[in-house]
Specification:
The structure holds two protein chains of two kinds. By secondary structure, chain A is mainly alpha-helical. Chain A is built from eight helices and three strands; from the N terminus they run H-H-H-H-E-H-E-E-H-H-H. Chain A has helices at 2-54, 59-78, 83-104, 113-143, 163-175, 196-203, 206-214, 219-239; strands at residues 152-157, 179-185, 188-193. In chain A, strands 1-3-2 form a three-stranded antiparallel beta sheet. In chain A, 74% of the residues lie in helices and 8% in strands. Chain B is an all-alpha fold. In chain B, 76% of the residues lie in helices and 0% in strands. Chain B has six helices and no strands. The chains are: A mainly alpha, B mainly alpha. The A-B interface holds A 66, 70, 73-74, 77-78, 80, 85, 88, 92-93, 95-97, 99-100, 103-104, 106, 163-164, 166-167, 170-171, 181, 183-185 and B 6-9, 11-13, 15-16, 18-20, 22-24, 26-27, 30-31, 34, 65-66.
Amino acid sequence: MEVTLFIHAADDAFRILENAKVQAVGLLDTATRLTSETRWMEEKKVQGILKGAQATRSGFQNFVATFVMLMGFWALLSGKFDTFHLSLGVICSVIVAYLSHDLLFANVRVGDGRVIAQRFIRYIPWLLYEIVTANFYVAYLALSPKMPIDPQIIRFKTKLESDISWVTLANSITLTPGTITIDIADREFMVHALDRKVAGDLDTGEMEDRVAHIFMEADHIYIQDVLDVSRIFAELKRGM
Amino acid sequence: MIASSDDIIIKTIARIFVPFIQLYALYVIMHGHYSPGGGFQGGVILGASMALLLITHGYDEVKRRLPEGVVMLLGSVGVLIYAGIGLTCLLLGGNYLDYSQLSVILHVDPAHARSLGILGVELGVGFTVMAIMYSIFFDISTGGILPGDEKRNEELENNG
């Protein structure tokens, strides 16, 4: 009697275990499927963003973009909007765009132009603020009787990738009183700083990060990180 | 021979500014009869933009855009336009460069014909000045020795 009871109990236990195993396998399968699906979806999204950021435009697109910018510049200069002068403007813009359509957009990592323009405009107030504060600091250095300057040349490797962002950073550094960009060679900036504090401010790399942000050069890493981790975990949580 | 500049800042700024300088030069030429400026000034600005490109991007880059032959052709065409408009006025019974005579050909009133005639002359002057400016700068910077023309360079070396 006890033996049959025991066997029944063992059978029950076995069935329960089997069920649990099936459920566990099902859960794991769902988890894997969800992960791969979301990964695939997010990867496509990231690829789309990257393609927008890295594809170089064709010659004709460059030509049209240059033409539009030059035509706007012409309208600004001329200020005469009768047919004759506008057609002169169109002819001149076509000639110049044909001569130099590969100059304006040479080796630019073409991102979303509007985003870059917006970010650039938002960068200007910050730069102005930096310039004003640095002005006061340099005035303090010059006016204090001891004149506590400590001129030095600092070098740092930059993480920026395109020539336009190098130039933006170099000119921002030069515009800020107390620091002057001497040379960019081999992705290495050579900067003259008036004093240890100014050099330290530059070394924090905030300006570099902001310039990288303008030209969408840090975005792909950031987007990849966020999409890879957080979204997939959220999806997994919902699935389970 | 002028090689491409090593300075990234100068190169990039020149790259961005050259199209706008060229358009500004054409604006100065085209609006010569309304505002200060005209063929000579515009032509100099245009030549200066090519010189800027030459000292930042090197000879090869400029030659690809505007070969020597085309520059000399532009210079000659400019003179031809100027002399042509003048002689046309002469043939139509007026004085040399008497633009109001052009109204017969252009089918507009004499005042308008004057404006268009001046524009044509300015265009010719602009072309010529640009070509000559550019070629003077180019000749001085290379010492008259054309890069890529080995045979002639050897001859010059042997003679000199």
